[in-house]
Amino acid sequence: MTDQMDLVVELVAANGGEIVGKTRLQKTVYLLDACGLGSGFEFEYHNYGPFSSDLAFETDASVATGLLKPEERRGFHEVPYVVYRTDAEPPTRIGALDAEVVLEKLGVLKGYSAIVLELAATIQYFRDLGDSDKINDRVRQLKPLKATPERLQKAWDLLDALGLKGEHA
Amino acid sequence: MEKDRRIRDFVHGLIVFRVASDVDRIAWKLINTREFQRLRRIRQLGFSEFVYPGATHTRFSHSIGVYHTARLLLERIRQIAGSVDATRARVALLAALLHDVGHGPFSHAFKKVQENIGIHVDHEEWSSRIIEGDTEIHAVLVGAGGSGLANEIGAVIKAEGPRDIYSSIVSSQFDADRLDYLRRDRYMTGTGLGGFDFDWLLDCLVIDKLTMGEKEDFDDITGLCLNHKGLQAAEGYLLSRFHLYSQVYLHKTTRAAEQILMALLKEASTKVRSKDRKACPIPSEHPIAKFLSSSDPTVSEYVQLDDFSIWGAVNFMQSSSDPYIADMSKRLLERRLFKCFDAGAVAGNSPGTSLNRLRRELQKLDGTKDGLLFGRTVLTDKTSVTAYGVHDFGDRDVLQNVLIHANESAGPTDISEHSDVVKAIGEMRVERHYVPDDKGVAALERIWAEVSK
Questions:
Q1: Number of neighbouring beta carbons within 10 Å of residue B449
Q2: Distance between alpha carbon B227 and the CA centroid of its chain, in Å?
Q3: Complex ipTM, two decimals?
Q4: Which of residues 417-446 of B touch A (CB under 8 A)?
Q5: A119 interfacial to chain B (CB closer than 8 Å)
Q6: In DSSP terms, which residues pair with B18 in a beta bridge?
Q7: Is B212 on the interface with A (CB under 8 A)?
Q8: How far, CA to CA in Å, does B99 sit from each of A154, B122, B176?
Q9: In tens digits, what is the pLDDT along chain A, a chain of 169 residues?
């Protein structure tokens, strides 16, 4: 097992033993990194926001070794998605953060939909690039359907609730 | 345009731009702009020609094929819906024509090069900058419909998914882009794989109201699905995609050349930026030198980039004082590519700890053993292939999957519910490590034997 595999399993454990969906897992790690998790995963803009192929590979490896158990579910129009589960207990420290801090952040993230996480991660991605100009306009252009005014507001609320202070659009 | 204009196309036969059609007249003017003509100098499949010598077709012929296919899709929508909104149809057709106008040379590789030098602009964004910027394309569009038309076309191209049935022509599972390139690339590579029943597929398209998202947070949208008679055509379509992705687009030799170009331009950019002219002997006014030294390149700098400028730069770089730059340049010019250790194939394309351990070991290579240095003489290519595309790692939503009606009364549901063939295609993880020669491959085989014990 590698450190990064450990990290993925620990996050799932800390999230009450399951994370629903690859998108939620990806955006969760990206946003926690912004909070100081220090996962070491490299993200690029792909698949509707910041995305790490290394994270996808490590997650697969965790599944292959039985550390994570995937469960296939079907959503609207029977489109499949995956839920990752583990029985492992969360450790006292995850990445560079105390587990308590991670638990608190994960608790915040749980209160928002995957679409809002995608919007928040995309906003944060632009901020991480040092590119804060007209962020809301840019997110709306990329995601005209998803980026409703209500959801964009929630995405900014989420970033605030995570303690990710920064320039608002 | 004073008369009908005709283009012979090897996929579609005769493509006619009618003088009586307002949209065709604008399209013809757009084709004759300098930015669109640049696409003649960008090969559709980049280095695939190293493997399939016939695959020298360009983004120019593809873009015209996409316009033609978009007209067929629009006609199908008119048949189903009874009529179409002329304004939105015009935007969709012109967006289809212009969707690739922002493509750089050697698309996948050059995108990585841009990221390496801190330019996070994808080809869709470049397309919209060209369409909305100070360009001949922009002037044609302003003349035809004001700046509003240019902005609307730019917005359709930039959006990550369709907003309505018209933008589905430009971006969806059945968009004109895919429906053209799969047929064109198959024909030009000469592969016998990858055929599908285009006419039947088109005739089975239906318009449906779809719901996208989670139970707690969702959107309603109109999208293209298939009626119950389209199952076999859809299976063929998805299988064709999987085969072309795995056998053509991700061919290990093609990807070796891409890896070399990426490593070469990454190194060249540091030399250009430090003004080390001996190590990077590209003239400073050369488009590649200007682009690599810029932190925020302009549209006019970007549209000077094409396959020819890349090859010209590589030609200059073979006389570099830096042995790595000189060697990598000559390797491209002489097609003397790195050799592949296909770790994914050795591991049975299944993820596991051995692959992770191998990666960790390779990252430790510092040049002291067998001359292997991670990131320079060990180049890693990792991706994923499904029937829906490459680098396919995320959740798929209703617009990203093919939905089909099981029978005349059933609603649209995911094709994997109805097709064992599609279910069986699954996902293939690709993990390859490239090294300069067979000796390097043997070294990697030894490391693999250790980590997979």
A1: 9
A2: 29
A3: 0.91
A4: 417, 429, 431
A5: no
A6: none
A7: yes
A8: 32, 12, 10
A9: 567 778 999 999 999 999 999 999 999 999 999 999 999 999 998 868 999 988 998 898 899 889 999 999 999 999 999 999 999 999 999 999 999 999 999 999 999 999 999 999 999 999 988 877 789 999 999 999 999 999 999 999 999 999 997 655 5
